[in-house]
Amino acid sequence: QWIYLNGSYVQKENAMISVYDHGFLYGDGIFEGIRIYNGNIFKCKEHLDRLYDSAKSIMLDIPLAYEEMKSVLIETVRKNELRDGYIRLVVSRGPGDLGLDPRRSPKANVVIIVEQLAIYPEEAYLNGLKTVSVSTRRNIPDALNPKIKSLNYLNNILVKIQANLAGVGEAIMLNSQGFVAEGSSDNIFIIKRGIVFTPPCYCGALEGITRAAIIEICQKIGIPCKEEPFTLHDVYVADEVFFTGTAAEVIAVREVDARTIGEGKAGPITTRLLKEFRAVVE
Ligand code: PDD
Fold first, then answer.
1. Which of 29, 101, 238, 276 could share a disulfide with 190, CB 3.0–4.6 Å?
2. Each residue's pLDDT tens digit in the chain (282 positions)?
């Protein structure tokens, strides 16, 4: 397995960076999770756009120009000979001293890992996941903007821990105002009376690329889809609920906080959207 590390391709065992890296010391950096379907990098432009936007926002100089990064991504995928897989692209502030001043970390670290993906079993897509809401709150734009896909994932880790304790795979995070934001690493959608809803990004949702793909598919096939704030109550009484993400794709939810959603399995619109999504990627 070849890993791209600052201009070189190295084996997994040799892929190492300094303990002074500010990604490690402070979570100072950004990342992307990207899928490879049939040897193609899915939504490459969208992921690179989000990466460079995140970098600009936190004043992180990515040492590769956009087109160079694209070539390096393609080359890393090619070298690993994977037709289907997952890419983790990480850019951290790079090594500095123990102070947090980014001016003392002039050289960012760039790492690209390509792997096989352990996704949910197919059964989960048919039967849906059980999920719970958790007490961890998503920061909304008064603090770190959720549009920045940063290495600060402690909120999300805390959600994951709460999900683990509840024995579920994904959980629902609210923002500090009590509106639904997203999952630990997925966006959330609900469907009520044929209308699809997802929280606007200002509610604390990452501007997910799968989320955008689903909104686009809805428009294409004529299912109304709205970005609107909603509460847990709306989730409980929804006809269908699903999560979207690069890793998860479109995964139905059958239970939220012990309330059965719809028929307790993937509903018709979710099933249709998954089918349409898979038709796009395959
Ligand atoms: N997830 N929200 C959060 C907090 C995320 O980390 C992710 C991505 C998403 C979904 O965004 P997208 O559709 O662009 O992947 C939402 C991980 C890293 C992944 O699925 O790869």
1. 238
2. 999 999 999 999 999 999 999 999 999 999 999 999 999 999 999 999 999 999 999 999 999 999 999 999 999 999 999 999 999 999 999 999 999 999 999 999 999 999 998 779 999 999 999 999 999 888 776 667 888 899 999 989 999 999 999 999 999 999 999 999 999 999 999 999 999 999 999 999 999 999 999 999 999 999 999 999 999 999 999 999 999 999 999 999 999 999 999 999 999 999 999 999 999 998
Range of the domain at 91: 2-115
Examine the residue annotation and report whether 149 is marked as an active-site residue of this protein. Answer: yes
Maximum CA extent, the chain = 56
Which tokens go with 55? 């970098």
- CB 49: neighbour CB atoms within 10 A? 13
CATH of the domain at 134: 3.20.10.10
Hey, what amino acid is at 36? I
Place of tokens 């990466």: 51
Is 160 found in the same domain as 23? Answer: no
Q: Which backbone phi and psi does 33 adopt, to 5 degrees? A: -115, 125
Q: What contacts 165, CB < 8 A, 6 or more positions away?
A: none
Asked whether residue 184 falls in the same domain as residue 202, the answer is yes
Ligand 1 pocket check for 54: Cβ under 6 Å: no
CA of 47 to the centre of ligand 1 (A): 11
CATH number for position 23: 3.30.470.10
What's the total number of domains in the chain? 2
Q: Ligand 1 pocket, 214 CB below 6 A?
A: no
Catalytic residue chosen out of the listed positions 43, 130, 149, 160:
149
| ipTM rounded to 2 decimals | 0.97
